[in-house]
Amino acid sequence: MHPQRKQRLIIILFMLSGIGVAVALLMTALEENINLFYTPKDIAAGKAPKHQSIRAGGMVVEGSVKRDQTSLVVQFDVSDGAENVTIEYDGILPDLFREGQGIVALGALNDDGIFVASEVLAKHDENYMPPEVKDALDKAHQDKAYKDGDASTTSGSEYGKKPANYNLGGQSYNADKGGE
């Protein structure tokens, strides 16, 4: 092999190995910083990993908030309409935190099935709900309606969704109104 060709090959191999190391480090860093969102239904079904940083959210169940009298520890239940999960938080809750409101918590699931939160985020106004919580509530509501056999509760106009419109052979059909 010609010395100049050999030198180019070595340079290319070093560049490729450097790029490979950079990609491996990037993937490792991203993998450690990903916080996947799990609904209470997913957590209750055992789909959420234990002792790994995840996000969980739903509506704070009425009457479930229990405050420790000697510390800042607060324990409350969160529901997506299908299942409840107990969340424990040691710290000052956001001013907008209250029962019946949507929250998202960052933390980890312990061996007892309690979600130990390191951060709790509450919704910021009357009309806002975190997208993950809204989607989870919609899905739980639809699943419950499907199990109960009540198709009327799964119409597209609930929870701010637009009604389903179809075009059948040139004729417009609105699923919520039964046709136009």
Describe the structure.
By secondary structure, the protein is α+β, with helices and mostly antiparallel strands. It is 30% helix and 27% strand. It is built from three helices and nine strands, in the order H-E-H-E-E-E-E-E-E-H-E-E. The protein has helices at residues 3-33, 40-44, 131-148; strands at residues 37-38, 54-60, 66-67, 73-79, 84-90, 102-109, 115-122, 165-168, 171-174. Strands 2-4-5-7-6 form a five-stranded mixed beta barrel. It has a two-stranded antiparallel sheet with strand order 8-9. The protein is elongated. It starts with a helix and ends in a 6-residue tail after the last strand. Residues 152-180 have low confidence and may be disordered.
Topology:
Elements lengths: L2 H31 L3 E2 L1 H5 L9 E7 L5 E2 L5 E7 L4 E7 L11 E8 L5 E8 L8 H18 L16 E4 L2 E4 L6
Parallel strand pairs: 1-2, 5-7
Antiparallel strand pairs: 2-4, 2-6, 3-4, 4-5, 6-7, 8-9
Distance between the termini: 79 Å
Helix content: 25-40%
The quaternary organization reads as single chain
Number of strands: 9
Mean pLDDT: 78
Main sheet attributes: strand count, strand direction, barrel closure:
5 strands, mixed, barrel
**Radius of gyration based on Cα positions:** 25 Å
